[in-house]
Amino acid sequence: MKLDSLHGIIAGLVFLPVNSEPAYLDPGSGSFIIQIIIASLAAISYAFRSQIAKLGSLLRRSKDKDQDK
Amino acid sequence: MVDQKVSASFRDPSGFVFTRHKQLYRQVNKSYQADYELLNETGLYAELTSAGLLVPHKEVSVAPAEKSLAYKVLQPEHIQFISYAYEWSFSQLKDAALLTLDLQKRALARGLWLKDATSANIQFHRGRPILIDSLSFEAYPEGQPWTAYRQFCQHFLAPLALMALVDVRLSQMLRTQLDGIDLELCSRLLPSGSRFNFGLLLHIHLHASAQKRYAGRSTREAATRASVSKMALLGMVDQLERTIAKLQWKPVGSAWGNYYAETNYSNAAEAHKGKLVETYLKKIKPKAVWDLGANNGLYSRIAARLGTFTVSQDYDPAAVEQNYLHARAEHETNLHPLLIDLANPSPALGWANQEREVLSQRGAPDALMALALVHHLAIGNNLPLERIAEFFASLAPWVIIEFVPKSDSQVNRLLASRKDIFDDYTLEGFTKAFSKTFKIETQSPIAESERTLFLLKRK
User: Fold this and answer.
1) Does residue B90 sit in the same domain as residue B20?
2) CA closest to B140 among chain A residues
3) Do both B66 and B106 map to the same domain?
């Protein structure tokens, strides 16, 4: 998938505009935009991992309940 | 009252460092007042200083260097020796990178973030990396991508990836690329297989192509198109951390293998040499020592154990790496391993040659140690003995130096494939050359070897 189309999908689906204050350091436009992609992947992976962890703990709890019976 | 602004700190308008009467101060400008107050009020300053991650400072009532701009003057705790990323071993740079990410996470948790992420803001203090710029934090602008992300990748991730995956000596690119390694260049130098490393694919390869694609576009325009939530930003920092943690360099199975097993003297000679070094050090009681050609720091540790702050220098990246890993494992607080080629030591660099100091002006050691070194300089590098003596005399008043004669197998090896043009390289020639600048205080033959250890005092 081309970088542009990936960026377009993510920007269109997930994020809202924000007001930005210029920094003393030039952050670089490309470095700004790539972060939107990377951070969204990281957010998805973070959310996915926390769901898995939640599921794991639910399963453990129900197993514990079964054993209690 | 003569103030001298420290040139390394001029880029950030939040404040600057200056020296007055040999004391170092940091002026905080009015423009940084709100962020400075936030650093204290949120408890971030207290958290980071008590964890040893940020250099502590005192607010002092001395006159500011630029009154019209000034909000406060700080006096930071003294850092004994300033070093730069091109003088660090792989793990030193890696630890500095991981510290930077840790600081970013801790700051975000308290509503701030790092507004810059340069390796020049990190120093080694009591054996561990520490942030020296207390003006690096600012209020976190919710939703905005990290402004220092590019700088972080250029200063830390790119050189670490090149060192781990191409050649450890590529850290020397940082000598010429003071704002870190250009990502497009890094992407071209990395092996194509590095694209299968997910972290490097994102932060180096795709990052470099995005820079090319969006070059010249305004960041304001870029940032108004989308935002990055705090959770996504933390996720990205976490991703960077995992990418860096996975990068490894070990000095085995390569040109560096077996290097340390190859010494030519007995245990008795090594023990006697250590004993002599200790006796000489106890006699001169130096506060600071530079051990030149320190290898993995075996003899530096004799000085360090006596309570002497010791800069342990070697030109071999594997030796410095082993030295640092040992110091880190043992929590050694007064030993600083440093990658230096003595035949080409770090020069003054940057704007007006004032952003990075020349090695010889960074501290004034009371003594040098030059053990099993002089043959490398005199024969390996064709340096006349008198020139070596003059250079050493320019650095320190005392020198503990070992003479290794031609009959020694290590010198034989240096002469094996070349003409012996070193007629003056004898014990007499050495004594004569060094006597021009130094007085010989003591000299002792090292047991079970043909070597001699000297204690010299500058005339």
Assistant:
1) no
2) A21
3) no
Q: Which residues of B touch A18 (CB under 8 A)?
A: 142-144, 223-224, 226-227
Give the residues across from B456 on adjacent strands: B399, B440
CA distance B311 to B304: 9
Which among B240, B21, B30 has a CA at the least distance from the CA of B135?
Answer: B30
**Measured at the alpha carbon of residue B276, what is the angle toward residues B372 and B330, in degrees to the nearest 5?**
75
- Tell me whether residues B11 and A24 touch, CB distance under 8 A: yes
Q: Is residue B221 part of a domain?
A: yes
Please classify residue B108 by burial: count the beta carbons closer than 10 Å to its beta carbon, then call 0-12 exposed, 13-18 middle and 19+ buried.
middle
Strand partners, B458: B438
Q: How many CB atoms lie within 10 A of CB B416?
A: 7
Q: What is the ipTM of this complex?
A: 0.76
**CATH label of the domain that carries residue B376:** 3.40.50.150
Residue with tokens 């129900």: A62
- Which string of DSSP letters, residue by residue, matches B185-248? HHHHHS-GGGGGSHHHIIIIIIHHHHHHHTTTS-HHHHHHH----HHHHHHHHHHHHHHHHH--
Q: Which helix (H) or strand (E) segment is B350 a member of? A: none
Distance CA B86, CA B169 (A): 10
Q: What is the tally of structural domains in chain B?
A: 3
Residues of the domain holding B170: 85-246
Q: What is the pLDDT of residues B275-328, one digit of tens each?
A: 999 999 999 999 999 999 999 999 999 999 999 999 999 999 999 999 999 999
- Mean pLDDT estimate for chain A: 69
Ranking B156-170, B274-288, B384-398, B403-417 by mean pLDDT, the lowest is: B403-417
- Please give the residue of chain A at the shortest CA–CA distance from B235: A42
Do B70 and B126 have their domain in common? no
| C-alpha torsion B149→B150→B152→B156, nearest 10 | 140
Instruction: Kindly calculate the radius of gyration of chain B based on its CA atoms and give it in whole angstroms.
Output: 24
The widest CA-to-CA distance across chain B, in whole angstroms, is: 76
The answer on B207 and B159 residing in a single domain is yes
Last residue in a domain, options B17, B50, B76: B76
Does a structural domain hold residue B256?
A: no
- Those of residues 14-43 in A touching chain B at CB distance below 8 A are 14-43
Do the domain assignments include residue B257? no
pLDDT tens-place string over residues B101-146: 999 999 999 999 999 999 999 999 999 999 999 999 999 999 999 9
Contacting residues of B for A39, CB less than 8 Å apart: 145, 228-229, 232-233, 235-236
Domain identity same for B90 and B72: no
Does residue B223 share a domain with residue B112?
yes
Same domain, B287 and B158: no
